[in-house]
């Protein structure tokens, strides 16, 4: 199996990789920040992030062990083991940034209602969680055994813990993501910030 297929359409691999690091830098990611890539897959976006961050600042987690194995291969293949990233199925530690690109859309409502508050607790004061979601009244679908979910902003806002702010910061298309798949370009980016 081509491990790149674990991270969505193979023809978008390079574009998605370049877009993620560009977007994160524009949002204020700095090399010294502790960064959690939640649902890192086979490092579809992780390699340029690891390259940018200081040594030991990147943690990538994925619920699929085959993705972690593919991520380790990709790390060695790109000669970035010296950056000492953590690649695992469990996230330990506190983070300035938590990034979930095209991950929350593949979690059931029940799983999200537990995952988002748990991740919020891992944010340092002033830290932020950024994740992409689908809006709309379309029926939920399926991709590689995972759901494809459509929720509303109010639904997400309803389970954000006290002491955290949530806001929309635009679609990925509005932030320069450009695929030939309009539904992908329309994914909305939500930002949860831990208040000072």
Question: What brief labels describe this structure?
Answer:
196 residues, alpha/beta, Rossmann fold, 7-stranded mixed sheet, two-stranded antiparallel ribbon, 9 strands, 25% strand
Provide an overview of this structure.
The protein has 196 residues and is an alpha/beta fold. It has one domain (3-194): Rossmann fold. It has six helices and nine strands, in the order αβαβαββαβββαβαβ. α3 (65-77) links the parallel β2 and β3 (86-88). α1 packs parallel to α2. The longest helix is centred in the first third of the chain and has 14 residues, at 13-26.
SSE-based structural type: alpha/beta
- Quickly count the helices: 6
Task: Average the pLDDT over all residues and give the rounded result.
Answer: 89
CATH class: Alpha Beta
Level-2 CATH architecture: 3-Layer(aba) Sandwich
Helix content: 25-40%
How much of the polypeptide forms β-strand, as a percent range? 25-35%
When the domains are counted, the total is 1
Lateral strand order in the biggest sheet: 3-2-1-4-5-9-8
Short précis:
The chain is of the alpha/beta class. It has one domain (3-194): Rossmann fold (3-Layer(aba) Sandwich). 29% of the residues lie in helices and 25% in strands.
Structural topology:
Elements: H1 13-26, E1 35-38, H2 46-52, E2 58-61, H3 65-77, E3 86-88, E4 95-100, H4 109-121, E5 123-133, E6 141-143, E7 146-148, H5 153-157, E8 164-171, H6 182-185, E9 188-194
Parallel strand pairs: 1-2, 1-4, 2-3, 4-5
Antiparallel strand pairs: 5-9, 6-7, 8-9
